Amino acid sequence: MEYVEIEVKAKTVDLAVEAAMQELGVSDREEVDVQVITEPVKGFLGMGGQDAVVRVKRRPAKRRRNRSRGNDRAARSGNNNKNRQQERSGGGKNGGKRPEKRGSSSKSGGKHVRTETKVSDDRPSLPVDEQAKVAREFLEGLVEAYGLEGTVSTRIEDDVIVADVAGDQTEAMVGVRGSVRSAIHELTRTVLQRYSQETARLRLDIAGYAERRRQALSIYAEQLIEQLMGEGGEIMLEPMSPADRKVIHDVAGEHDGVTSYSEGEPPRRYVVLSRVDTSEEE
After folding, report:
1. Domain ends where: 181, 207, 233?
2. What pTM value is reported for the model?
3. The sheet that has 270-275: what strands, in order across it?
4. 167: left (phi over 0), alpha (psi -120 to 50) or beta
5. How confident is the model at residue 227 (pLDDT cuts 50, 70, 90)?
């Protein structure tokens, strides 16, 4: 019997094989031999690409031994009956005893003992000044990678690393409403965590954005509190970052008769300003 061999071209090897199988009338890929003649090559902007070429041949069917099936089944049935009789009479390999389950232990009463392996942490515990140095070097490399002109300085205030990226061109690292600055802040924290087991808190300002944002939020909070004192009730603000929420809480804490709290889940966590009736508290 002659078995047909065909070549098919397609965008990918899988598509070419699938087309060849349809041509041969085969539904199972195990029934064909596939030889890849040419691997596909992607072009640039849709030009200069190259399709895959495969050569597919149907495998010869395996001969089935129908005649020996009945004898094999009878032999297996006889052996199984013989083994059952030996187990009942105690003449089996295990002397009539049931085979022991693997993994069981008679000493522990059959209970599995779970052992836990502790993974050692090779990171040192860097002091805050060393962490500030790591943050400064990372931010300097980031400014250089952006191709911008700017300077990076760090200082320590109450065990908090305050990093400042200054320069007119560094405004590009702020982003819309500080989105890029927030991402850089998280990246810097991640770098610190790679070098030290315990990391200090980090405050990052780029192109003076954090200070301008703090002043704008303070003015905004004062206006809302003035409205709240006149109308009462509660005011729910838009979702904010933890740093922005802290500014609102700090301003609210300076006013009697006003309380603030946060609700929601990150990154949709927001601040609620509420008027407190001081006469009831008294």
Report:
1. 207
2. 0.51
3. 234-236, 270-275, 258-263
4. left
5. very high
